[in-house]
Here is the input.
Amino acid sequence: MSILGIPVTTLDGAPTTLGELLDGRAALVVNVASRCGLTPQYAGLVRLQDTYRDRGFTVVGVPCNQFMGQEPGTAEEIAQFCATNYGVDFPLLEKTEVNGENRHPLYRDLIADGDDIQWNFEKFLLNADGEVVARFAPQVQPEDPDLLSKLEKTL
Here is the structure.
């Protein structure tokens, strides 16, 4: 099965696949958290979404509570936080494990290189075919020139 066929569930509980969610768009898949020092990156992710959505791009946020419990909220609390504080309008998935024996199949495929997710806000750039084009460390800002360059080439 390709990465696009992997079943995922949106934050509001709707089952889908990554392919249905992306609908032919390139994407930046990011494991996110509301109580992290990197949480302000949400603002840059929203700007990326706003800038590139009309060119066939979306951000996909994947809440994760595996890093020092920095995403402890319920689905409703996460949605409220993201909308109220950052105006997030890109897709958010249900809270997901990205490392360990319960790692979601999406992350199993994303990290095919074998390296675990380091921290919140690690980023994977996917082309429209669901192929991983680039991986960015958590500290790399959403509007980093290298990330933007690779995004431009992907579109």
Strands lie at 7-9, 15-17, 26-32, 57-63, 123-126, 132-136. The first helix runs from residue 18 to 22.
